[in-house]
Amino acid sequence: MYLNRNKNTTSWGNYPQVDALSQFIEREKDVNSLDMTKKLIARGLGRSYGDSALSKSIVNLEKNDYFISFSNEGILECTAGVSLESIISVFSTRGWFLPVTPGTKYVTVGGAIASDVHGKNHHADGVFSDHVESFRIFTGEEILECSKSVNPDLFYATCGGMGLTGIILTVTLRLLKIHSSYIIQSQTRASNFEDLMRLFEGSESEKYTVAWIDCLSKGEHLGRGVMISGEHATYDDLLGTKMQENPLKLCKSFPAKIPFNFPSFALCSESVYLFNQLYFNKPSSELDRALTTFDPFFYPLDFVSDWNKIYGARGFVQYQFVVPMKSSKKAIQEILERVSDKGIASFLAVLKLFGKESEGYLSFPMRGYTLALDFPIMEGLFEFLDELDKIVLDANGRLYLTKDARMSADTFHKSYKNVNKFKSVVQKYGCDRFFKSLQAKRLGL
Amino acid sequence: MNSIFILGATSDIGRELSYIYAGKGYSLILSARDKSDLTALKQDVKVRFDVDAETVSLDLQDFENIDDVISSFKGQICGFVLMAGYLGDQQLAQSSKDEAYKIMAVNYTGSCAALESAAKNLESVPKSFIIGVSSVAGLRGRQSNYMYGSAKAGLISYLSGLRNRLQKSDTTVLTVLPGFVDTKMTAHLELPALLTASPAKVAADIVKGQTRGKSVVYSIFVWRYIMWIIRCIPEFVFKRLSL
Ligand SMILES: Cc1cc2nc3c(=O)[nH]c(=O)nc-3n(C[C@H](O)[C@H](O)[C@H](O)COP(=O)(O)OP(=O)(O)OC[C@H]3O[C@@H](n4cnc5c(N)ncnc54)[C@H](O)[C@@H]3O)c2cc1C
Ligand SMILES: NC(=O)c1ccc[n+]([C@@H]2O[C@H](COP(=O)([O-])OP(=O)(O)OC[C@H]3O[C@@H](n4cnc5c(N)ncnc54)[C@H](OP(=O)(O)O)[C@@H]3O)[C@@H](O)[C@H]2O)c1
């Protein structure tokens, strides 16, 4: 184990920054030498956007990345710091893939459980923890095994529990069998939000679906976008192509680098407008089916490593909310209107229709639509987002904790219905005496 | 006869080196003191590369035991890597005999004993190799770490003598001279980014040197020139520097 102090420790949004002392755990035995006098929070690869993985005292697990065992039935056991990127590079050529993956592969399995991440297949396959057989967690006093049948309350508190139940040490998860490393992708344009909803609701039998929305369009084009759907190509799909020779070949794309914090003006609404124009003119036809590989399909943003720096040194927040089916149309249209009126351009807007609610007490997804928007930090932004919060609350929705850096404790308590259950489990196992993040303080967790 | 014995395999550089050799299909014998660390690495390598790997615990301060442990793999190994090292605490070593002795034993006497045993077991093995990881710190003694530096200097001389001795056999001997490396050994130090290599880079340089039959590799290469300059500084100047 070793220590590192960084005055400007931040996560993906570069906001907020904190002077933090990190204790790097490389192996399980290092847990015994942790300094626990201050409250700690676990951290993986810091791909959460806000303050969930931040505190003055951090336990960093990115070096604790060891595979432990793998069975031919696809059951993988590894330490919590293993990244999804490592899993793909080791197993995809053997015919196995992640059952659920977020939009970046640079996250740890520990972080994927703590945020209970979802992917483009949420409607079909649920959240990450639905594929976790068990994990072992250090609660501050002891190391406990957890699964849906062993210590289930701690299991459900930890999935989506943002590190507040302790430090996940090892994880056993079920991988997904694949027959090729290719994806058959379709892109369909939609001229407004209603159109997009129709597309989503008509494609629930597709494995992966997601849409990009142009946040600057207004009026009858409000919410125009492109829906991208896909599924894993089978061997037959590759017949007659060069790819059939080596169907599981892993094509890696090397990310370009943005080496420094971009000046903030690079993100003025014109540049976002141009970007969106570019994106929406990309699909060559209304319905465009093509073979593609994992990186461009699942991880388009990983192409430019450190793209978060284009928002400048002040950083940015990602505002991701979900609203139930019934209220989706009204709430999302209203939010899109506010955003486009305000002219605070969002570089990215990603829309997805979720499947059923998960069991983790603080897990984010519920049946309904989720929208994610990026906002560079600027004066008046938080007041504006407070207004959006009201719309989300009125629609019985909630915000994703792993993206959040500013929601009020009140908004949080009103929208997460199982908070009390969560708190009682945390108290029962005594984790609250040892673990706390900046976010937990802000939210009164 | 396609196993490689890596002593100090659980170091950051050792782990990367294990990956490269496992990726090339070699079986591994992973060695260091800590058994649980070795087991973790063994399982990891097996899952990642689907190769055979076994572990053996060995302490370079346990002088009597070194040859027996290494010789028990006779006939199985075609390569031996001495990666283990101990930076220690220079200040402490000036007042504590134990610390001074430990630095010298791990980096010099124990290391030489291990290499001597490896040479004995590999001398008659065709296309075999021995790799010893020393340090640029061994090229000139400085007040900040001369206990470590002098032991690593001894190791450099030992390796050049061994290379000379094995010249006629089919065993190559490679001396590795890393500069700054970003590992747990140096996690508490502030190292200049441009002169600091990642463990993976050093491991790649080692394997490149070994496959090309090189005698000495620096990692990263600029250290060859930096050390050349440092060694050119006349002693009457050098002794006044605070390095
Ligand atoms: C480009 C991009 C795209 C993304 N796309 C998606 C997406 O599609 N879907 C989605 O769900 N998320 C998405 N995310 C968010 C990301 O998947 C989550 O924030 C994830 O948790 C980050 O993992 P990490 O290892 O970096 O964890 P960190 O950011 O370091 O930590 C996140 C949380 O996990 C906790 N944690 C980390 N490790 C442990 C551990 N070992 N034990 C206990 N708690 C731990 C931390 O305390 C913190 O609360 C995206 C993020 C980025 C940057
Ligand atoms: N890091 C640098 O900047 C740097 C620079 C130049 C040279 N080097 C050299 O590169 C090599 C690897 O360095 P590193 O930084 O990766 O080292 P490290 O992470 O500190 O690891 C040291 C390794 O040596 C083993 N070891 C320590 N004492 C031992 C003993 N008495 N008997 C047997 N094994 C022992 C350790 O395992 P156990 O503790 O389990 O025994 C571990 O595997 C060392 O020889 C070092 O001197 C490093």
Write a concise synopsis of the structure shown.
The complex is a heterodimer of chains A (445) and B (243). Chain A is of the alpha+beta class and 445 residues long.
Provide structural commentary.
- The complex is a heterodimer of chains A (445) and B (243).
- An eight-stranded antiparallel β-sheet of chain A has the order 16-12-14-13-19-20-18-21.
- With 445 residues, chain A is an alpha+beta fold.
- In chain A, a hairpin with a 4-residue loop joins strand 5 (67-70) and strand 6 (75-79).
- Chain A is globular and about 55 Å long.
- Chain A contains 13 helices and 21 strands.
- Chain B is of the alpha/beta class.
- Chain B has a single domain, classed as Rossmann fold (3-Layer(aba) Sandwich).
- In chain B, 47% of the residues lie in helices and 18% in strands.
- Chain B is built from nine helices and nine strands.
- Chain B has helices spanning 12-23, 35-49, 66-71, 90-95, 97-122, 146-165, 199-211, 222-232, 235-238, and strands at residues 3-7, 27-32, 53-57, 77-82, 128-133, 171-178, 180-181, 196-197, 216-219.
- In chain B, the strands form two sheets. Chain B has a seven-stranded parallel β-sheet, with helices on both faces.
- In chain B, strand 5 (128-133), helix 6 and strand 6 (171-178) form a beta-alpha-beta unit.
- In chain B, helix 1 (12-23) packs parallel to helix 2 (35-49).
- The radius of gyration of chain B is 17 Å and the shape is globular.
- Chain A binds chain B through residues 2-4, 24, 26-27, 29, 66-70, 76, 78-79, 90, and chain B through 36-37, 40-41, 43-44, 47-48, 184, 187-188.
- The complex binds flavin-adenine dinucleotide and NADP nicotinamide-adenine-dinucleotide phosphate.
- NADP nicotinamide-adenine-dinucleotide phosphate binds next to helix 1 and strand 7 of chain B.
